[in-house]
Specification:
By secondary structure, the chain is α/β, with parallel strands linked by helices. The protein has helices spanning about 20-35, 55-65, 80-90, 105-115, 180-190, 205-215, 245-250, 255-265, 280-285, 300-310, 315-320, 335-345, 355-360, and strands at about 5-10, 35-40, 70-75, 95-100, 140, 150, 155-160, 170, 195-200, 220-225, 230, 295. The chain has a 3-stranded parallel β-sheet with strand order 1-2-3, covered by helices on one side. A 3-stranded antiparallel β-sheet has the order 4-5-8. A two-stranded antiparallel ribbon has the order 6-7. Helix 8 crosses helix 10. The longest helix is centred in the first third of the chain and has 16 residues, at about 20-35. The protein is elongated, with a radius of gyration of 26 Å. The protein starts with a strand and ends in a 15-residue tail after the last helix.
């Protein structure tokens, strides 16, 4: 039986949010449960959208949450020769061709399809005699439209018709691969057995299956995760809904184990009423067939409750070490023993460490004496 190998493959285009971390966490749990390997791959082929520092932010976020990876980080921008090699394989097999059209011509095709109230398909304009590909023009996949019925590890049996298959770009004119091409090559080269990703990719998977066949690759287990919804449960979670950077939660004093427990529960449960899981329990109990198909609501109040639970599970000595950087300025002159006494008094109410100054400041201030009270 082959080794289970999963991957987290984010694009470095901004901070890592809860949705990205959940995708990583589910892949990490699958690998750890099966004694397999978890790989980090940075998909940095869209150079125009890359945000400086994002790759390091991804690495730091995984480290803060204790989600160790066995290989990587790999960077797609350093693997261009691998993609060119596989692109040439498709050209030689008659399954890829140079795109001879200008962006303006392609736009005219789109507008004509719109006017005719038909979906735009590039393959309807596939050139009969495309020029030899020399790298100066985009390279497109020559699809073979067909129907697919497949089993998704979360969504169950899914079927699509040939109308959703199209000729998509493999390599751009700047020499970089598209996501649609690069991730399939990398997953094959890295022997990935399970791919977790969210629903925005669902419509693209028939095209991926068509490419797998053209390359002679066996697809990995595909698991499509439900969206994480905003607090109202009606739309996909966004920054406007208060979704924060994962590192912001860490800076505010949310415990890694609480964050991992909370994120794991967004769309998954073990079929019981249990809400608090240790990492060991998550690794033992996690399974894709218990991931729900509908969206999971992000409830920050539940995260606060869960983090408070983990804080109360700590001894005062353990908690004292963790809150070292959160004391109010007024506590600077107080000794350890007194501060531990104060901490023991507020531990029951503390939901995250950044609350500590508000809850403890008055313990370190000498209040003015009111003579009328002692006369």
């Amino acid at each position: 039986m082959s080794t289970v190998r999963t991957r987290f493959a984010p694009s470095p285009t901004g901070y890592l949010h809860v949705g990205g971390i959940r995708t990583a966490l589910f892949a990490w749990l699958i690998a750890r449960q099966n004694g397999g390997e978890f790989i980090l791959r940075i998909e940095d082929t869209d150079q125009a959208r890359e945000v400086e520092g994002s790759a390091q932010h991804i690495i730091d976020s995984l480290k803060v949450l204790g989600m160790d990876y066995d290989q990587g980080p790999y960077y797609q921008s350093q693997r261009l020769e691998i993609y060119r090699k596989w692109a040439q394989t498709l050209i030689d097999a008659g399954r890829a061709y140079a795109d001879p059209y200008t962006p303006e011509e392609v736009q005219q095709f789109r507008e004509a399809a719109q006017s005719a109230k038909q979906p735009f398909l590039y393959r309807n304009h596939r050139p009969e005699n495309p020029p030899a590909w020399d790298g100066t023009k985009p390279l497109r996949f020559k699809s073979e439209p067909k129907a697919y019925t497949r089993t998704d590890a979360v969504m169950g049996e899914l079927s699509t018709g040939p109308e959703v298959i199209d000729d998509f770009v493999l390599l751009k004119s700047d020499g970089f691969p598209t996501y649609n091409f690069a991730h399939i090559i990398d997953d094959q080269e890295m022997q990935i057995t399970h791919v977790t990703r969210t629903q925005e990719f669902l419509a693209s998977i028939p095209n991926y299956l068509n490419l797998y066949e053209a390359l002679g690759f066996e697809p990995p287990v595909l698991a499509t995760l439900p969206f994480i919804l905003g607090p109202d449960g009606k739309k996909k979670l966004s920054k406007r809904d208060g979704a924060k950077d994962v590192l912001d939660y860490n800076r505010e004093g949310y415990l890694p184990d609480a964050m991992v427990n909370f994120i794991a529960s967004l769309g998954w449960n073990d079929g019981t009423e249990q809400e608090i899981f240790s990492r060991k329990e998550l690794i033992e109990k996690f399974s894709l067939d218990h991931v729900q198909r509908s969206g999971a609501r992000f409830d920050e109040r539940r995260l606060l409750w869960m983090n408070g639970h983990y804080i109360r599970e700590l001894s005062v000595d353990e908690l004292y070490v963790k809150v070292a950087n959160f004391w109010p300025a007024e506590a600077a002159g107080s000794d350890d023993a007194y501060k531990k006494q104060v901490l023991s008094l507020v531990q029951e109410r503390l939901k995250y460490f950044a609350e500590l100054p508000e809850l403890t400041k008055f313990f370190f201030i000498d209040l003015p004496v009111d003579p009328s009270l002692i006369s």
